[in-house]
Fold:
Amino acid sequence: MHKFSHAIVRRPCKALVDGITSAPELGKPDYQLALKQHDAYIEALQACGVDVTVLEADERYPDSCFVEDPAVITRCCAIITNPGAASRNGEKFEIVAAVRQFFPEDKIEYITAPGTLEGGDVMMVGDHFYIGRSARTNAEGIRQFIAILEKYGLSGSEVPLEKVLHLKTGVNYIENNKMLVAGEFVAKPDFAHYERIEIPESEAYAANCIWVNDTVIVPEGYPAVKAAVESCGYPVLLVDTSEFRKLDGGLSCLSLRF
Ligand code: CIR
Structure:
């Protein structure tokens, strides 16, 4: 499996409180607490042996700390997406500057209109990429994305989504053929050949864990998920993401790992 040496994150901005949410009943994020949680997230990545590039907060884009969405980084190339959420679309112009520090121009690819795609809909399993077709990622975006992958000898396949925001809201690969699945992903035939670890509905949010170099980072406060991941033999690092959850954001959304 491919170990990660780098990660890119962006500091939450004050406008975070106005980010997109499907769960206004959870209240607005506390900006100071979000910063503290972001600090802890960076420390967890560093503890996994990753060199973290921290981009400055960008007040023009409330959701810009969710850097996973405007880009996807593969072992062969970086793909700048075309986010389907109008208020987030401009984030693609900002992330490309950071990506250029690591990839030459001929290894940077772009999803273009009318295609839309967000990185939260992309799950990497080795050299294969599952792509969720969602309210943010359309058929044309997926077609372009798979064509780019194939140019580099990689492959991709579409997974239709029914309820969740992004593919990785409910399914996450933690290597060694193991996959955390919640809700609509428990029974999807696409994932039948993996060892699926079913996450109870009460902890579905925490299906969004990230494998980083043989440690799994798990959101704090979800004991069933922590126990399930530990039973797979992985050391676990806990990071509290309560303020990002208020905006439908999870652990994977907060970094690009490569
Ligand atoms: C949004 O709705 O775009 C943000 N509030 C949350 C993005 C979460 N990103 C992700 O799941 N990859």
Notes: The radius of gyration is 17 Å. Residues 145 and 241 are 30 Å apart (CA to CA). The chain is about 20% helix and 25% strand. The longest strand covers residues 128-133.
